[in-house]
Structures are given as C-alpha cells and as structure tokens.
Amino acid sequence: MIANSQRGVALLTILLLVVSITVVAGAMLASQKIAIRRSSLLFDQNQLLQDINTGQQLALTIIRADDELNDTDSMQDIWAQPLPPYTLDRHSIGIEVRDEAGRFNINNLYHHGAVDTAALAVFQQLLTQLNVEPDIAIAILDYQDTDSEVYQDGGDESVVYNQQSSGSVDKNLANQAFVSVDQLEEVKGVNAEVLALLRPYITVVPYYLPININTASPVLLAALIDGATSKQMQAVIDLREKQAFTSVDDVWQLPILSGLNEEQRKAITPLLAVDSQAFMALITASDNATVGQARQRFATIVISKMATDDERESSNNNNGRNDNNSANNATNDDKNKTPKDIKVVTQRLWAFRPVF
Question: Cβ of 243: how many Cβ atoms within 10 Å?
Fold first, then answer.
C-alpha cells in the first residue's frame, strides 16, 4: 500500500513538472513571438523612415534637374507633373511637389527687422478677396514682429491682442517668425473657419519669398492690385498656360496691369518673380503589406532654391556690362550656368496624411 502511495506521489510530481514546463515553454514562446513582432515593427518603422529619406533625396533631384532646364518655374515644369510611386521591393515612395512661391508667405510681413508695407497691403487685399476681415493682417503682423506694440502705435499688444482663449498658446513662439500655418489659430480673429479659407493661399517659409506670377492663383494675383478681381486675372492665367512669363516686366504689358503708374509698379515689383525660391514636397512611404493594413508614414519638407553668392555676383557683373557685348554674355552665361543652392530647410513627420 505504501509503495503504491509513493508511486502515486511520484507520478503526480512528474505531472506537475510536465505542466510547469509546458506553461514556462508556452510563456517563453509567447514572449518570443512578441519580441519577434516588436522587432518586425521596429524594422518596418526604420525602413519607412529610410524611405522618407530616400523620398527627400528624390525630391531634391527633381528640383535640381528642373533648375538645369530653365530659369523659370511654371506648371509645365517636371516638378509640377504627377509622379508615379517609386517601388523598392515591398515598399513604395510617393512624392508630390508644389510651388510655395505660388502662395503668400506670411513671414513676408516682417523681415530684416522691419515691416514690409507693400506685402502688408497685398495681404490685406488677399483677405478682402476672401471676405475675411483685413485687420486680421495687423494681428498676424504683430504676432511675429519683435516689439510688444501694436503696429503704428496702436497700444500694448498684451492689452489689445489677447491670444485665443484656449490657454494653450506657447508664448515663446510669439514675436518671431511663424514656423507653421497652424500657428495662425493662436492669433486673435483667426479661428478654424478663417484658417480653412486662408490655407490654400498662404504658406510659411523661414525667409523672404517673392510671389511667382507663373504659379500664383487668380485670387492672389488679384490681391496685387487694389480693386482687381480674380475673374480679371484669368487673362494672366490663360497667357502663362501657353508660355511661362520669363520676366516680371512681361506682365506690365497686360491690359489689366497697364494702368499702373511707375510708383505702383516700383512698389509691387520686389514682391514678384518668375521662378520659385521654395517648394514643398509631401513624401508618402508605404510598406505595401499583403496581409493586414499597409503601414504608411508621411513627411513634408520645404526645399529652398536660392542663388549662390557667386551667381549673385556674376549677375551683378553682367548687369554692368555694355549692350554691345550682351549677346556674347548671354551665350556664355548659358554655357557656364551655375546651379542654385538647392537644399532642405525644414522637415516635419506626420502620423496621418496632412492637408496638402
């Protein structure tokens, strides 16, 4: 009897050991699966970030290639055409490019330590075109200028302009250049509805950005002239679709603009260009998963395209040459064209596709 009891205890002990080993093995297997899954997710995330960097280089290549083809930027250029996704194994990279100079840069209102009165007038006329209170332009200017007074001695900003009542405003961002269009919601008078109206026509670039007449919308072009309408500016759109303007002087010959006097033209000319000094690219990286939902990451980058110091000096020298040598100089300039300094100045990652 005792022997049978001992055998029973031994069998029970063995069973308990087997169960314990099974539980431990199952836990280890589950933990291993979790670790493998985590490693796989990390690998995919790292791969998507690498794809974002690849997309950034592809966008730079597109802008550089276009710069070698012509001296203007228009909707006929290669950067403006739809680009098919680039496929890399199980991953794909999508790129969309837009000309930021086709919009009004709100940082143009205040630059080099001073208010740009011509840019302010254009922005107020843009707000009027959109049926938005034009005094909002003053609030936006005061948000970014470096003093604490309302423009033209309108009083203490802290009294006149209480920020939006959300209480979430970062005071460190006030009295300096904007870094995002979304910051406008922190400015008095700009709510979500107003921002939605403004968003297609404005941008934020960290330096002065002339408006490209080859890509600006009829609404923005109409804002250049007091009393003009977007319908009247359709003539400009029709002409540039046939051939891009190669000089700002070309637009002064148009009937809608021919009535401007010399002083008005002189005020507007510095605001305009026929090329762009800034582009924005939206990069979409996808893992193209065949099982489950495909993972995606998004990034927006601002690409600057600025003349190098050597190119500026060369341009100044060319302007000083006499007319007898102009044809030869133009030929030499084409042969020895110096590429502009094209680089990424800002990058922002997004979990979801942003408004573009």
Answer: 12
